[in-house]
Design a protein that fits this description.
Layout: H1 2-14, E1 22-24, E2 29-31, H2 34-47, E3 50-65, E4 71-85, E5 91-102, H3 107-123, H4 136-148, H5 174-184, H6 190-199
Antiparallel strand pairs: 1-2, 3-4, 4-5
Helix pairs in contact: 1-2, 2-3
Length: about 200
């Protein structure tokens, strides 16, 4: 695979760094967008005579209850990207895993976007100038918010006896209790909600 390896080295050199042009206005952090990564990688692949074929595989789709008590879908997707050298016919496969959460029909699309972005970033050693595990600032903000505003999920002492699943007896939050009573007519934990849906 000498020809392909040589071309991949050229691609890695051309894509060694991607600027973080995206900004999450809710959590206040910058990130490299999928569009920026794909634009840079695609230009380098085309310049070096490499074509790509992306093949997604849905690994899992589950329903979860978000902090507002709404049901959303959480999808996990594996993305295999086959790179083919137009001159030698040599191939290599890059793989990425991504998850996406959405209240509508976009969970799988979000997961695919994350999977293809990180397949390229990890396989081609693309840097954004930071470490995603270095999240001490995020942790500090979360602690400060928790201290400033008590959690809505934390029950008042007098309410604790009522915050239990009527089927299995485990503790549930006030939001889960409110949601399940409206949907099923009784307080249910998330597991028992799924069972109730299946029995319906």
């Amino acid at each position: 695979m000498k020809n392909l390896a040589k071309k991949l080295l050229n691609v890695m050199e051309a894509c060694s760094h991607v600027l973080k042009n995206g900004e999450n206005s809710f959590h206040h952090y910058k990130y490299a967008t999928s569009a920026d990564v794909l634009e840079k990688v695609n230009a380098a692949l085309v310049e070096n005579g490499l074509c790509s074929i992306a093949v997604p595989e849905i690994l899992d789709v589950v329903e979860i209850t978000n902090s507002k008590g709404n049901i959303e879908r959480l999808a996990t997707v594996k993305m295999d990207i086959l790179l083919i050298d137009k001159d030698s016919g040599e191939t290599v496969t890059l793989t990425g895993i991504g998850s996406g959460q959405d209240g509508g029909d976009k969970a799988v699309m979000k997961a695919q976007t994350a999977a293809i972005k990180y397949a390229y970033m990890l396989s081609l050693a693309i840097s954004t100038g930071d470490d995603p595990e270095d999240d001490s600032k995020t942790d500090e903000i979360a602690v400060m918010r928790a201290k400033a505003q008590p959690s809505m999920d934390k029950p008042k002492p007098e309410e604790k006896a009522d915050l239990a699943c009527s089927d299995c007896g485990i503790s549930i939050t006030g939001k889960v209790k409110t949601y399940s009573e409206g949907k099923f007519g009784r307080p249910l934990c998330m597991k028992c909600q799924k069972r109730a849906k299946g029995a319906a």
